[in-house]
Structure formats: structure tokens, C-alpha cells
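Researcher: Please predict.
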Amino acid sequence: MSAPASQLDQLAWLDASAADDRGRWDEVLARCVHDFHQLPDYVALEAARLGGEGGALRVEVDGEVGLLPLIRRPLPEPLRAVSSASHDALSPYGYPGPLMSSDAPAVVAKLLAAWRRGMAQLGLASAFVRLHPFLNEALAPALGEELRERGPLVWIDLEGSEEAQWGEYRSMDRRKIRRSVEAGYVAVVEDDCARFDDFYAVYAETMARLDASWSGFARPYLEGLLAALGSRAFLAFVEHEGQVAAGALFTRSCGMVQYHFSGTASAHRRAAPTRPLIHAVRQRCAAAGLSKLNLGGGLGSAEDELLRFKRGFSKRRGVFQTWEWIADPSAYAALCRAQGVDATSGFFPAYRQVPVVPSEKEVEDEA
């Protein structure tokens, strides 16, 4: 797809799969603190999973740069007759919020104006953008009514002392971690993903046990994810008498660690092995000088048992937020009417009313 026109020649659509666009994409990554969600290979992977066209709107204003990763999808055929727009867009899974080389309010305002102009030039009816809890603090207040709070999340400050970090655990969780160690459960934090087969075995077992809708995140996807992440990904395990009791996939980028996928062997569920696993990863990452470990929130950003479990590791709280952009409110309302749905239902975009993929695709059923 060609880049959208811009009077100021500051705006361009970069194709996540195009080698010719990689240099300009990488330039923004070099200038901005970023997570793995903004990597072009990850955006391309997600575009393939979601059946869209992966890319990013790159903007340059006043010597500063910004990057908005998006997956552009054609509108469903029946809706094209009632809309002048041809597509809509959503973020890749996770926290792929926009990158900005400056948080100055004037720069943020100009970047936002350019992104909105660019999305309109791409022929989008709407865009659903998942914000990053650590990287978009300056952006969120500028979004006004386009900002929505989806749910709480939990993160660990890795820069405090070991005593301070351990002290933020719930007393019950500290006791259960000690009991796990006494019962012979041993945590192993790897530097890479060489033991992917061991991880996948407990992950697949967990998803099958919970009858979760996970086909999009099955082995081919995970193998593609590891290829996209490279050295940013690592695995951690808890073992008992030579058996893997629990495993998890974590990522690290610019000092930030994400708890991304996990699983627990059915035979060890009652021992709650994910507690010592997270504890060991927290210790390793703190010792390595990393700054934050994001545990995420509940399934679908809900106030649930998974969120309660995560709260046992830290008193630090964040909010998962989304940017919900509409090109033309009247046209959006027409799309919703054509589908027979309520435009204010809470699902966005409402005209694509389909089951929601949980905003945290790791499952912890030991809480």
C-alpha cells in the first residue's frame, strides 16, 4: 500500500513486512523507549493472525518522531455499502501503544493531529489502539473522550531493594513460596527459549484443560513469536523431581519485562508453582538491573481471581487503557445501525460485535 499523502510530508505508512521500510521504522525504535509490541516483525506476525495488513504510521514534527503500529482490515462486505470508509484498524495484541520521542505537550498534540489525519487518509472508519501502561502516560490525557479505561493491572518495581520488593508480597504468598521450596519445587530462569518444547507442553495442557479459545495462539504462532522477539524473549520454569510443574514466557525490552504466556501442569496445580516462578523471575530481573515487571491484569481486563492472584506480588497498580478513534461519528452510527447493534455497547468498534480475545492471554488457575 502506498503512503498517504501529507501536505507537510511528515506522515508515512510503513509496511511491517517491507524491507524498504525497515530503516525508517528502526530509526524511530532507536530514538524511543519501546517494548516488543512495536517491533515490525511482531506487528507482521499479528497481522497474519488477524487477517490484516500490518504497518505503522510514522510521523515527524519539529524534529521529533512518532510511530503508531496498526493492523488495517477491510470492512466486512455488507458494511461497505453504507460507508465511504473501506477499512478499520486495531492494534496488535498486548500493549503496542504509539511511540513518541518527546512527551512535550505541544509535540504530543501535533503527533496526535498527524495520526488522526493519517488514519483518515488510510480510509479507516475507526481504530482501536491498545495503550502501553508505561510508555503512554503523556499521551493518554491528550486523548479526551477517545480514551477509555479497560481495567486495572499489576506491576513490580524492580529498582527497589530486595527487602522492599519481597515486603510488597502478600504474607500468604510469601508463606506459599516458602512451602513450595520446602516441598522440593525448584525455579529455573533461562536466558533464552531453548526449552520451548517443555514450555509448550504445559501451556497446551493448560489451555486444553480450561477449554480456552486459543487456536490463534497455538504452536505455529508461538514459534513465529520467538522468531520475531529473538533475544528479547526468555523462559522460566518450576520443576519438581525432574518434571516441569509450570512454565512461562517473558519478554524484556528497554528495562521493561512482560509476563506474556504461562501454563501449569495439571498434576501440580494444587502446589501453585507459578508463585515461585514469578518470584524467581522478579529476583533475576532485578539483579540484572531491569526496571519494571508487568504482570498484567485479569482475563479480559476483569476484576477476577487472576487479578487477585497478581496483586499478591506487588502494591503497584496501573490501568490498561485504549484509544478509540472514530473518523466520522454519524458514519460510525450508520455502520452500527446496519449491523443492528448499539453503538454505546462498550465493544469497540461496535459494528464488529464478536467474542473478545482476552487482553491477557496467559492463564493462572491456582489463585
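Model: Residues 154-317 form a domain with the Aminopeptidase fold (CATH 3.40.630.30).
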